[in-house]
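Narrative of accomplishments. A recurring question from our advisory board has been how the design workflow behaves on a single, concrete structure rather than in aggregate. To address it, we present the structure tokens for one chain from the evaluation set, followed by the sequence designed for it. No filtering or post-editing was applied between the two.
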């Protein structure tokens, strides 16, 4: 998916917008709130993103791209370790804990994804991003010598989304154990079969 040019100022505004949503929900996302969070003069955000719709769309694309980049890096690391399922699980848990340690990215994604049920533009952004993530996961399963298919990769992505949501709703001190337990069961079921196994 082509990405809009991300100038330093645009990135500053979108990072601030992400923090605004994480702290105040999508209802709190205004141009003025973003300017305040970014420490910029009033009118800065609207100079780049004139409407609320433009701001939401740019933020959705920004969040989706950051998540996709993280998942692609994880996929490269997993592929490098071949068929080591324990290593794949540990690296996946490490990324999830990184996201949970600074949850603005996840919270903003969830807020915007829910809004996508009422906004076709947002829905389209996340549908495209989801399709690309599923392709990355399927490629990773194939390279690791696991049984793979589009449906299997889609199921794994959906299940991992659920694990992240479940972890996000738990106290910070419980998240690590919860992730380890869920990922052991989930990745063992969906990644353990070798290609051609019956």
């Amino acid at each position: 998916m082509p990405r809009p040019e991300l100038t330093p100022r645009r990135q500053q505004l979108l990072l601030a917008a992400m923090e605004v949503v994480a702290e105040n929900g999508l209802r709190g996302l205004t141009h003025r709130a973003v300017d305040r969070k970014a420490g910029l003069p009033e009118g800065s955000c609207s100079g780049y993103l004139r409407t609320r719709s433009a701001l939401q769309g740019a933020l959705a694309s920004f969040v989706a791209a950051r998540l996709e980049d993280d998942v692609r890096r994880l996929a490269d690391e997993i592929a490098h370790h071949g068929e080591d399922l324990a290593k794949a699980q540990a690296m996946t848990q490490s990324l999830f804990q990184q996201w949970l340690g600074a949850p603005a990215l996840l919270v903003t994604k969830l807020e915007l994804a829910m809004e996508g049920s009422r906004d076709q533009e947002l829905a389209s952004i996340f549908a495209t991003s989801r399709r690309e993530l599923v392709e990355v996961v399927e490629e990773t399963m194939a390279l690791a010598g696991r049984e793979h298919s589009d449906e299997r990769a889609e199921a794994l992505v959906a299940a991992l989304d659920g694990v992240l949501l479940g972890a996000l709703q738990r106290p910070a001190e419980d998240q690590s154990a919860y992730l380890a337990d869920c990922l052991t069961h989930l990745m063992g079921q969906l990644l353990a079969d070798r290609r051609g196994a019956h």
